[in-house]
Every structure is written in C-alpha cells, then in structure tokens.
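To: structure desk
From: M.T.
Subject: fold request, one chain
Message: Could you run this one when you get a chance? Sequence is below, nothing fancy, just the single chain.
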Amino acid sequence: MHIATEGLVLREQDIGDNDRLITILSRDLGVIRAYASGVKSIKSKRDSGTCLLSFSSFMLHKKNDHYRVNEAVCKHFFMEAGNDLFVLSIAQYFCELAELLCPKESPADTFLRLMLNSLYFLTEGKRDLFQIKAITELRICTVSGYCPDLIGCSSCGAFEKNLMYFNPNDGSLLCQDCSERNGFQLNRTVLSAMRHIIYSEFNRLYAFEIPSEDSKYLSEITERYLLYQTEHHFKTLDFFHSL
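Reply: Done. Structure tokens follow.
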C-alpha cells in the first residue's frame, strides 16, 4: 500500500553506509518509523527530506507493519537551529516530546501544527526561547490529555486574586486564601499566560508577550508539570540545562 503524507523528521539513525531509519511525526499517521534505503548515496534526491528536523512530503510504502520511504521532498529545513546550541537543544527536546506524546499510527494534525509553529518561532528568533518552550510543553500536555484546571481556585472557585498557587502534581489551582503556600506562586501575568496557552484558539496561541523573568519562571513551571505528568526522563532536556 502506498501512502502520501507530510511529516517532520523527529529522529534519524544511520544504517550502514547509505541507509537511514527515521522517525516521522506525520499528519495522517502520527508517529511512525520508516526505512529509507540509499538516501545517503551521492545520487540520492531524498537525503535532505529524511534528515533530522526536516519537514517533508513523503511517499511511503507500507507492507505489514513496516514503512519504507519511496520519496521524500524537503519543504522546510529547521536545522538552522544548529547555528545556536541553545536553540538546537530545545528543538531536539521538542522532537523527543513529540515522539513520546503524539499519537502512534493515527492522525496527528494538531500535534504536527504545534511542532511546526514552535520550531518556526524558535529558529527564527521571533519569540523568547523560554516562552516558546513553555507554550510547547503546556499545550502538548493539554492536547495529550494532561490538561491542568486553571479556571479557578479548586477550593472556593475564585477566578483570580493577587496571588494564586499551582500544584504541578495534580494540575490544580488554589487562591492565596485557600492555599497552604504549596506549589508555584503565580502572579497575574504568569497565570494569564498559562490560561492563554491552555484555552486559546490555536491561531492566537503565540500571540502574547511577557517579561523575560516571567517567561523563565513560566518555563520552569510548565517543565515541572510535564515531567511529573509523563514520568519520563528527557535526555535532550538534560543537555539543554547543562549548557
């Protein structure tokens, strides 16, 4: 069976001198692994389309549970990230996130759209790095079924007070009157940013700005929440923090 789809290459593994095994976040099939033979040959026209962080049009052949890449045409190459080690480390972290949380063998247009937009803003330097990291972490949690409840205080229902507290263990929110001061203290800027990331329409997801100190704090919160919910150790995140 032949399948045409678009996808982002999340991982590449060289096999021998000319072949490559790639992991793709595809629009129609979700996360799949596909064998690309001969792509590293000098004569191959599929090399750039099967490289890490390439967004490509694919023609795949499926036999049983295995995929082969017949054609791969690169539409956008995000490896400009390699010019900045911090940006590259976050881009690879996004790929590891996608590989873990995106659907397998089922449509994943929402996830692909999130990854492509985050990588675009990240590599083009159009938003603060920590803000893009926080947006991607919290939104992918939301669409994966790990959505925290930030509508109001889980005890009294208060929508907003001067300070609110967020518990990353269960995703709950408490106001300053109901909280025992556990969890992350949220000012109005950070709480508004988190609510925007979770509840906004996608076309407005990236349309906000916050001070850099709030952005870094937001990134710390979303990272802690994601790590607790997924119970996964991300090597790419370790590398980012080592820089």
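Reply (cont.): The mean pLDDT is 93. Let me know if you need anything else for the meeting.
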